[in-house]
């Protein structure tokens, strides 16, 4: 008989031996997630005897983690901005730093809703739908569109919207940036691919081998997505609208320059939890 505590200890030991960081936390998170237990229940329920089926489930998951597959990909879910989101093969795993983009947009969203009574949001490269769904969660008067080139991502975003009770306020559109988009929006947001192509082979295996390449690769200089967005965003933004983008830690000046040339003004720049530049907010210039 194997107890929960023994299974966690074994996973922790194997993760540690393999050189994985945060072995203790990951062992508890992985096994707790597999068994539907909270972190407290994992911590206090060490004497629980696992069934053969549970042991098999745990063993397969531990083996996957030892091959560097991230814990949340194994579990198929990730918490983001107070929501539990499904993740899939062609979606980027939502990360805490992206919550900064959501929080930066909330003040603008509330101001727009206060003035107009409603707001339209466009999330370019939506993936799981994390950004737009987090904004819709905080503003019941808002409507949102998530666009992506991946059908897998769009289906995942739709499933997340349904799970969160937002299906009536969320629409998924397959589009290469603005190609299939129509109308104007009060807020445009995007966490686009921004890693230089030559850097990708050196990324951690958890990112390089499991996050979708299309969500990572920003081209030779990492800036291709920003050029595409800046070139067309002005045609889709309301007069007093704002656009917010996530950026790489060393891209503040170059991305700002791209948007400035395209007719935008930087109104806010925010840093992430590691004190790196992470979010830029622009308004469109008017004659």
TrEMBL record:
The keyword Transferase applies. Substrate binds at residues 191-194. Belongs to the protein N5-glutamine methyltransferase family. PrmC subfamily. GO terms for biological process: methylation. Methylates the class 1 translation termination release factors RF1/PrfA and RF2/PrfB on the glutamine residue of the universally conserved GGQ motif. Pfam families: MTS, PrmC_N. Its EC number is 2.1.1.297. PROSITE patterns: N6_MTASE. NCBIfam families: hemK_fam, RF_mod_PrmC. CDD domains: AdoMet_MTases (cd02440). The keyword Methyltransferase applies. It is an enzyme of class 2 (transferase). S-adenosyl-L-methionine binds at residues 125-129, 148, 177, 191. GO terms for molecular function: nucleic acid binding; peptide chain release factor N(5)-glutamine methyltransferase activity. The lineage of its organism: Bacteria, Pseudomonadati, Pseudomonadota, Alphaproteobacteria, Hyphomicrobiales. This is Release factor glutamine methyltransferase. Residues 7-76 form the Release factor glutamine methyltransferase N-terminal domain. Keywords: Methyltransferase, S-adenosyl-L-methionine, Transferase. Residues 115-194 form the Methyltransferase small domain. It catalyses: L-glutaminyl-[peptide chain release factor] + S-adenosyl-L-methionine = N(5)-methyl-L-glutaminyl-[peptide chain release factor] + S-adenosyl-L-homocysteine + H(+).
């Amino acid at each position: 008989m194997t107890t929960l505590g023994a299974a966690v200890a074994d996973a922790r030991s194997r993760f540690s031996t393999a050189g994985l960081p945060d072995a203790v936390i990951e062992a508890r998170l992985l096994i707790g997630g597999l068994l539907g237990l909270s972190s407290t229940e994992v911590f206090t329920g060490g004497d629980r005897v696992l069934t053969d089926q549970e042991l098999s489930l745990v063993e397969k998951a531990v083996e996957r983690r030892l091959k560097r597959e991230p814990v949340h990909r194994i579990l198929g879910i990730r918490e983001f901005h107070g929501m539990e989101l499904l993740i899939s093969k062609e979606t980027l795993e939502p990360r805490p730093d992206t919550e900064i983009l959501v929080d930066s947009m909330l003040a603008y969203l509330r101001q727009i809703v206060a003035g107009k009574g409603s707001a339209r949001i466009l999330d370019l490269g939506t993936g799981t739908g994390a950004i737009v769904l987090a904004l819709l969660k905080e503003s019941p008067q808002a409507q949102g569109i998530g666009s992506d080139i991946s059908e897998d991502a769009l289906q995942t975003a739709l499933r997340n919207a349904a799970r969160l009770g937002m299906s009536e306020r969320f629409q998924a559109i397959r589009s290469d940036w603005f190609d299939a988009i129509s109308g104007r929006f009060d807020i445009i947001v995007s966490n686009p691919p921004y890693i230089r192509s030559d850097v990708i082979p050196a990324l951690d295996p958890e990112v390089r081998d499991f996050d979708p390449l299309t969500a990572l690769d920003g081209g030779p200089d990492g800036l291709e997505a920003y050029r595409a967005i800046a070139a067309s965003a002005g045609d889709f933004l309301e007069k007093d609208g704002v656009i917010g983008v996530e950026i790489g830690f060393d891209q503040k000046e170059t991305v700002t320059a791209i948007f400035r040339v395209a007719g935008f003004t930087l109104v806010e720049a925010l840093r992430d939890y590691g004190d790196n530049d992470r979010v830029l907010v622009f308004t469109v210039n008017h004659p």
